Amino acid sequence: MANLRAIRKRIASVKNTRQITKAMKLVSGAKLKRATDAVIAARPYNRKLNDILDNLLASIGDQSHELFQPHEAVRRIKVVVFSSDRGLCGSFNSSINRRLDTFMRENASIEVELVTIGRKVRDYARRRSYKVAGENPNIPPVQFDKLARELSLVLVREFELERADEVHLLYNQFRSAISQVVVIEQLLPLVQPTRAGVAEPGSLIDFVYEPSQGAILDVLLPQLVANRIMQALLESHASEHGARMAAMDSATRNASEVIDRLTLEYNRARQAAITKELVEIVSGAEAL
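Given the sequence above, the corresponding C-alpha cells read:
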C-alpha cells in the first residue's frame, strides 16, 4: 500500500506540473501573436528607411559619413547581447551564451565589452567574468522604443569618440514559432550599401536637399542605428515566446506520457496487491 500511495502522489504531482506547462504554453502563444505582429509591422519601415538611405548615398556619390568609416585599428569592441529575463524557454538563452563564448574566444586579443539586454545573459556574463559595460534587465516591450533610442545615442557617441572601434548585435532572429536563429551582425561602422538595383548618381532625379545632404545624414543615420536595435529587440522578444511555447508544449506532452506510464504502473501494482490479498484469504480458509 505504501508503494501505491507513492505512485498516486507522483501522478498528482505530474498532473499539477502539466497544468502549469499547459497554461504557460497558452500564455506564450498569446504573447507570441502580438510579438510576431510587431516584428512583421516593423520590417516594411526598415526596408523603406534603407531604400531612402541607398538613394541618398547614391546621389551624394563618393562622399561618406563618419559612421561608415572604419577605425584604423580594432582594439575595442562592444557587443549588445539580447536574452530573456526568465527561463523555461528551451535553448533560447543557451544558444546565445554559446555564441557569445565563441565570439569571446575569436577576439581574445581584443578588449570586448558587453551591453546586456535581459537578466539571463547578464548573470551568465558575471559567472564567466566578462566585462559588462551596461545592464538592462526586466525591460517591458512598451519601453523597447525608448531603450533603442537611448542605447543608439550612447553607442554612436562611443564610436565617434573612438571608445569603441566596432559595435555588434547578438540576438535570436525570429523565423517561426519553432525556429529561431542566433545571428551576430555589425552595427557600427555602418556597412556601405551595395547599391544593387539603385540608380547611378547621374541618372537620379536631382532633388534639392534642405538644409543639406550631410545634415540629413546626420539625422538619418542615428535613426537607422536606433531602428536596427529596435528590430533586434522585437526579433529577440518574438523568438523568446516562440521558444517558450515550443518548450512548454514539449513539456506538456512529456508529462502526459509520464502520467500514462505511472497510471499503468499503478494499475499493475494495485492488481498485484489485490491478487496477493485473495491468495492470503484462500490460504487462510484452507488452513481452517
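The two ends are 27 Å apart (CA to CA). Try to locate this feature in the C-alpha cell string yourself.
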